[in-house]
Predict the structure.
Amino acid sequence: MQELHDAPLAPLTTFRLGGPATRLVTATTDAEVVAALREADDTGTPLLLIGGGSNLVIGDKGFEGTALVIATKGFALDGTRLELAAGEVWTDAVARTVEAGLAGVECLAGIPGSAGATPIQNVGAYGQEVSSTITEVIAYDRRTRMTVTIPNADCAFSYRHSRFKADPERFVVLRVRFELEDADGLSGPLKYAETARTLGVDPGERVALDAARDTVLKLRAGKGMVLDPEDHDTWSAGSFFTNPILTEAEFAAFRARVSERLGPDAEPPAYPAGEGRTKTSAAWLIDKAGFTKGYGTGPARISTKHTLALTNRGGATTEDLLALAREVVAGVRDAFGITLVNEPVTVGVSLSEGPEPPQ
């Protein structure tokens, strides 16, 4: 294992923000990951896990403890069964499944980060979620100090959530297993209207796998959601806020606020979310609350391509970013009575309370 001290963390995140870690360890095998975890647990050392760094907001003071970079490699394909090591670059793995003619994750192309993070967030985009193809997650259980295999049914997947996210101190993902589909070179049925429309087909139809992947990549790039070091719109964590899911009463109150603010003919985006709940669009809320593309005057601003992405224009601090995020949250709450929730994980800071107290 590689070990560094007083190591900068900002270069390991897509935001390029955050102070140093007391100690930085890079693990390239499952055994090294487990050894680092056991050492931290045995000594009571605070531990920060880093994969692709695409979902992290690290405080300017950094992290007092051990930051563990999971850099494991492994892509094993057996028929339609795929096993990925946690450190595999996700978008590269998607490309290889498309090249192999297998459907199931093609619309998740271009999402930054590592394979091990996908079950934690139940990563999804353009009508697909990893929960629909994951069969098992192999993880180290810090409570029992054993490596365990957790079947899909026990992962408690929901919208951008899982048991791993609900109990982040317990499980560390080592490998993820998927069951993909051999549809003779065709994609899965397209569920996202924008993707189908761009491809000139109806929702529910299938297209060539590479056409689906390429279309998603173009759509994401147009929104600044494909990493490009030269494009500050991609110095972000992608979607900074999750789409709110509302009860019937909450949605009725929301519609009333929309009518009051935007006129009686205005209708907010609404998508069924099960059990009498409705999902609406965080990007729509942000825009209609007055935070348009490119909003901001400092080094942290809303993306010029997509209102859901907060970006570092260069030279920003984490507090610059959080000040912008808090302004957006307050503005949306005042306008529509909905409190947005951040999607990235915060380390040493809190969106609602500023710097966290020392642990």
Confidence is low (pLDDT under 50) at residues 354-359. The first helix runs from residue 30 to 43.
